[in-house]
Amino acid sequence: MALKAAFIGTGKKREKGTLDGYAMAYTHADAYRTIEDVEMVAVADISAENGQAFCDYYSIESLYPDYSAMLAEVKPDIVSICTWPHLHEQMVVDAARAGAGMIYCEKPMASTVGAARNMVSVCEEEDCQLYFNHQRRYGKSFGGAKKLLDEGVIGQLERIEWSAGNLYDYGSHNFDMANYFNNETKCDWAICQIDYREESLAFGQHIENQALALLHYENDVWHVIMTGEGAGAIPCHHRCVGSEGVIELGSARGALTYRTWGDGTWIEVDTEGEGMHLNSYIERAITDAVSNFQTGTWSMMNMYNALNATEQIFACWESARRRARVDIPVDIDDNPLSAMVDSGDLQPAPKPAE
Ligand SMILES: NC(=O)c1ccc[n+]([C@@H]2O[C@H](COP(=O)([O-])OP(=O)(O)OC[C@H]3O[C@@H](n4cnc5c(N)ncnc54)[C@H](O)[C@@H]3O)[C@@H](O)[C@H]2O)c1
Questions:
Q1: pLDDT in the model for residue 17
Q2: From the CA of 106, how far away is ligand 1's center (Å)?
Q3: 87, 159, 286, 332 - which has most CB atoms within 10 Å?
Q4: Which of 50, 128, 133 is closest to 95 using CA atoms?
Q5: Ligand 1 center–CA 22 separation, angstroms
Q6: C-alpha span between 197 and 229 (Å, rounded)
Q7: Mean pLDDT calculated for residue range 87-94
Q8: pLDDT at 228
Q9: 97: exposed, middle or buried (Cβ count in 10 Å: 0-12, 13-18, 19+)
Q10: Helices 113-125 and 303-322, axial angle in degrees (round to 10)
Q11: With contact defined as beta carbons under 8 Å apart, do 320 and 167 qualify?
Q12: What is the percentage of the chain residues whose pLDDT exceeds 70?
């Protein structure tokens, strides 16, 4: 019998998404509809307009305004959660308690580090496979970089550097990717400074304007990050520096290039036209998650890898709050950036009208 898949949150399909809405559920559904053993059976959205458009697009009959009613009546095997981060915890907990065997939730995990930890512990209790959509692991450029690392082409990995708009929203992918490159090793401390002079929100969450962070991995690899205005200091998506050379992703030279200290010539790896972003990575990620779910194994999108990245994000913000280096996992449950805004410690100016 086919696995029943249901959706919580659909969004409004647009030509191009913004930090107020990408309608990620469409990318999930595009994946499920290619998987023979999965049938998309139900949708829940508080917006009847969004929900109905999604149902019409994918010929799904059951639409609910209330996701709890959907979980109770449909009892889906798989639940895709494509709502904003502050809603993820309750929805994951409710879906797991309602008996879903697999949950595929959008990143970032949650709006607080405590919520992220709670989701993992409830899913362990309920024997539910919880995944997060850090889909870039399935891109040929990123996979190609991992292969070069595994083959020792740049010798022993010594440092991973990356740049992005912010630590939390896009940064969630980049922390996850750095951890993938470093074989899911954990960081034991972080030191970070941030600047938050102008209000900036991604899917309802504050994101810093600029950060500079240094984290230390337990295996002595360094993890260096620049976000926002200083991102140009690391002029590529990720850089892996080893004892024998360097790999760069998303530099001006191409999607994946590397050179060794020998003759120093940059070599471009053929990624079959794949760059940093493609929706097909999500299709591969979800297909792999479902196939692992069917065999009782875990895909690399698993909640433990996502939590590893999430602990690092919040540790960076906590370091900025304490004006000190912090150990990871950090002994907080909240969201330090939001807390600093709420307390008046940070007072970002309202974003000018566009
Ligand atoms: N993986 C990626 O590369 C990537 C890219 C963009 C966004 N995202 C993430 O995807 C998530 C969803 O973002 P989006 O842009 O798809 O959102 P969106 O705004 O396009 O859609 C969210 C939907 O959730 C619905 N909703 C809100 N509250 C609800 C509730 N209580 N019950 C049911 N439905 C509810 C809304 O009505 C809306 O239709 C966010 O966490 C975002 O960070 C991930």
A1: 80
A2: 8
A3: 286
A4: 128
A5: 7
A6: 12
A7: 98
A8: 98
A9: middle
A10: 160
A11: no
A12: 100
Could you identify the residue written with the tokens 């697009």? 57
- Provide the phi-psi class of 210: left if phi over 0, else alpha when psi is between -120 and 50, else beta: beta
- Look-up of token digits 């003759």: 263
Ligand 1 is surrounded, with C-beta below 6 A, by 8-11, 17, 21-24, 44-47, 50, 67, 82-85, 87, 106-107, 133, 135, 169, 203
At 117, the pLDDT band (50, 70, 90 cuts) reads: very high
CA–CA gap between residue 354 and residue 347 (Å, rounded): 20
Q: Report the nearest-CA residue for atom 7 of ligand 1.
A: 22
Domains identified in the chain and CATH numbers = 3-135+279-301 (3.40.50.720), 137-275+309-343 (3.30.360.10)
Q: Going by C-beta distance under 8 Å and a sequence separation of 6 or more, which residues neighbour residue 226? A: 161, 162, 163, 211, 212, 232, 233, 234
Q: Ligand 1: which of 20, 30, 88, 203 to mutate, most ligand atoms within 8 Å of CB?
A: 203
Torsion of CA 53, 54, 55, 60, to 10 degrees: 160
Q: At what angle do helices 336-343 and 303-322 cross, to 10 degrees?
A: 30
